[in-house]
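About this split. The held-out portion is used to measure sequence recovery: a designer receives only the structure tokens and must propose an amino acid at every position. Recovery is the fraction of positions where the proposal matches the reference. Here is one held-out target exactly as it appears in the evaluation file.
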């Protein structure tokens, strides 16, 4: 038995993110030396059979079928919200009121108005909080942040990001219900803007500072789909595709694009940054590599470097195997859990906090407003 103080986790959701988070909290103490040791205290989902099976599979000490009971328990320190977007607000408000730490999946709220309530609740309660924008913790992306902060790129002119998928092209795909809640605006808040572009925006603002104004277009290619819960054919009100131009505080220009209609692409998140002295490019399908072009190199051999991010002096990598051996997607969640726990006893909150999640939601709100108004919209707040 560890002598470290336990961090008793109560998690909501047993889907995709319930698995990545459970895996992260199970593994993190084995690879990172942290002040507190996570304990999988309780898992929550609405149906008894699946949640019990999940608890047994992942080693949770107990399970609940009502998140209100989970939040009310006095043997839980941290509520981790890994359920659909329409549940985030109520669970976070209740968790903060109960004095629990709160971690929440992205997007924080279905709108900036919801997110603001969540920020005010955790700040009033004075509880640790974090949003799971995990792509910041891909070692190659973290290295990009270090290089930018060290001034290696100089003045930044351009930021370019895309997140491309192709899983909703079939008109026969229903909307709503388990697995398809992302197509139901009342649950998701928006389509690819809040789902995929939110990731791109969070990374962009972390790397390149605040976004001041946007000009966007969105499209819903399939106008009606059968709703899984009602059986009726209903209008589709989410954005299937979303693209926007943006200006950053630092004067740089950006283009962002996300879609679920890019045939052949499953989760192609790419970003490129062009500065006066150097450029950086990264691709989620090759996540352990960073492309780097340094203009100060000798002209005859100057070119794009393909840096394999696996060495001990690369971010996070000393915690893993030996140089040359790469890690993957699931490790980004382990890194995020590690940083959250490390910050608990150290003063500064681990980023992104709920307040940073709100900043992203203010940009996605402006994107949707611009698509509607067909004008440039300022990012407010
Ligand atoms: N960080 C990322 O890269 C990333 C990736 C995927 C999803 N997400 C976010 O994670 C969240 C969950 O997405 P997912 O893909 O895991 O969804 P999912 O559909 O795979 O799983 C959702 C889970 O929540 C449970 N649930 C739904 N309503 C509930 C309620 N009222 N009480 C308790 N449990 C409830 C469902 O039973 C299910 O187990 C969303 O906010 C989504 O945007 C983030």
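Reference sequence for scoring:
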């Amino acid at each position: 038995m560890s002598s470290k103080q336990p961090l008793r986790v109560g998690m909501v959701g047993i889907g995709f993110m319930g698995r990545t988070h459970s895996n992260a909290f199970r593994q993190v103490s084995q690879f990172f030396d942290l002040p507190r040791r996570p304990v999988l205290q309780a898992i929550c989902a609405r149906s008894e059979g699946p949640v019990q099976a999940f608890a047994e599979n992942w080693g949770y000490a107990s399970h609940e079928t009502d998140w209100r009971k989970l939040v009310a328990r006095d043997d839980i320190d941290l509520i981790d919200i890994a359920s659909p977007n329409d549940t985030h607000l109520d669970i976070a408000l209740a968790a903060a009121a109960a004095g629990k730490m709160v971690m929440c999946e992205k997007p924080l709220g279905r709108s900036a108005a919801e997110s603001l309530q969540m920020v005010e609740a955790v700040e009033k309660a004075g509880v640790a909080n974090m949003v799971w924008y995990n792509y910041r913790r891909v070692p190659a992306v973290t290295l990009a942040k270090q290089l930018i902060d060290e001034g290696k790129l100089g003045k930044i002119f351009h930021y370019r990001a895309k997140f491309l998928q192709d899983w909703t092209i079939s008109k026969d795909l229903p909307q709503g219900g388990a697995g398809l809640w992302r197509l139901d605006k009342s649950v998701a808040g928006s389509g690819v803007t809040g789902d995929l572009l939110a990731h791109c925006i969070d990374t962009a603002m972390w790397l390149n500072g605040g976004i001041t104004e946007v000009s966007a277009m969105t499209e819903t290619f399939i106008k009606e789909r059968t709703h899984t819960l009602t059986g009726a054919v209903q209008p589709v009100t989410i954005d299937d595709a979303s693209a926007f131009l943006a200006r950053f505080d630092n004067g740089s220009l950006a283009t962002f694009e996300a879609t679920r209609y890019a045939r052949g692409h499953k989760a192609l998140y790419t970003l490129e940054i062009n500065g006066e002295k150097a450029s950086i490019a990264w691709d989620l399908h090759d996540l352990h590599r960073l492309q780097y072009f340094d203009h100060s190199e000798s002209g005859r051999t100057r070119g794009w470097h393909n840096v394999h991010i696996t060495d001990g002096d690369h971010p996070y990598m000393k915690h893993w195997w030996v140089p040359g051996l790469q890690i993957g997607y699931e490790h980004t969640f382990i890194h995020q859990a590690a940083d959250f726990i490390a910050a608990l006893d150290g003063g500064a909150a681990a980023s992104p906090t709920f307040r940073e999640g709100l900043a992203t939601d203010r940009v996605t709100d402006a994107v949707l407003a611009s698509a509607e108004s067909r004008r440039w919209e300022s990012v407010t707040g």
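Annotator remark: The two ends are 47 Å apart (CA to CA).
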